[in-house]
Amino acid sequence: MKVLVPVKRVVDYNVKIRVRPDGTGVELSNVKMSMNPFDEISVEEALRLKEGGNATEVVVVSIGPAKAEETLRTALAMGADRAILVETDDHVEPLAVAKILKGVADAEKPGLVIVGKQAIDDDSNQTGQMLAALLNVAQATFASAIEVSEGRALVTREIDGGLQTIEIKLPAVVTSDLRLNEPRYASLPNIMKAKKKPLDRKSPDDFGVSTAPRLKVLKTEEPSGRKAGVKVESVAELVEKLKTEAGVL
Ligand code: AMP
């Protein structure tokens, strides 16, 4: 079984995000970019499926600028077998991403697609669900455990107030949640080897998908800063402040 893992190049999660002065979005120039953390988790899970004898090949795909090759090379250094870069400088919205991924899946015929539950830049949480609908296959979102056997998968999902385990037929789309696993680091020798692994280049046109935006960003704002706290001398003073100042008692 082949596993397809979409990986997105996003602003590194450690970077303090700055809004562009004209409010059209966030500042991306001279900012460290990395693989979306949920996608690292998906790559790790795909590799574990392969190591456990439940998958034969791990293919990673990214839709983005030429520099997204770095993100793909990171996935290859972790252990993925092959990469596909669908190159575009446009800001590609989730529906167009899902349509392109459908094209890739139609060509590659994976038994399982492991998508991140959300990309931490736009926080859309849409691509996996849309892809499952376009492919007309089962979906299991927010996975914290995946067990594959004989054309089926048992997926444990993180839901409000607990965990739910569902059985789905393969092929399917699963979206990974934070507790699915802890991704490995790529070793230096593997980083060197990854430079020679195969990487196919495509364009959205190859899949007949338009990347023209359907949404217009009206404005982007910084969240308002938190007010500084105060230290109180006694419980009585705390209760008094909660009553008179915070108005919560
Ligand atoms: P989103 O729906 O935008 O929150 O993204 C959810 C997941 O879809 C991500 O974690 C990725 O696995 C995948 N995805 C979204 N955008 C891209 C992209 N440009 N290239 C590859 N995968 C993507």
From TrEMBL:
Please verify whether the record's keywords include tRNA processing. Answer: no
Recorded hits in InterPro entries, A to Z, give: ET-Flavoprotein_bsu_CS, ETF_a/b_N, ETF_b, ETF_beta_N, Rossmann-like_a/b/a_fold
> SMART domains, per this entry?
ETF
Q: Name one GO biological process term.
A: carboxylic acid catabolic process
Cofactor(s) needed: AMP
What residue range is the signal peptide? none
Q: This protein's superkingdom? A: Bacteria
Residue ranges occupied by any Electron transfer flavoprotein alpha/beta-subunit N-terminal domain in the UniProt entry: 23-211
Q: What keywords does the record list, in alphabetical order?
A: Electron transport, Nitrogen fixation, Plasmid, Transport
Assembly behavior = Heterodimer of an alpha and a beta subunit. FixA and FixB form a heterodimer.
Give the protein family. Answer: Belongs to the ETF beta-subunit/FixA family.
Instruction: Please describe what this protein does.
Output: The electron transfer flavoprotein serves as a specific electron acceptor for other dehydrogenases. It transfers the electrons to the main respiratory chain via ETF-ubiquinone oxidoreductase (ETF dehydrogenase). May play a role in a redox process involved in nitrogen fixation.
**Protein known as:** Electron transfer flavoprotein subunit beta
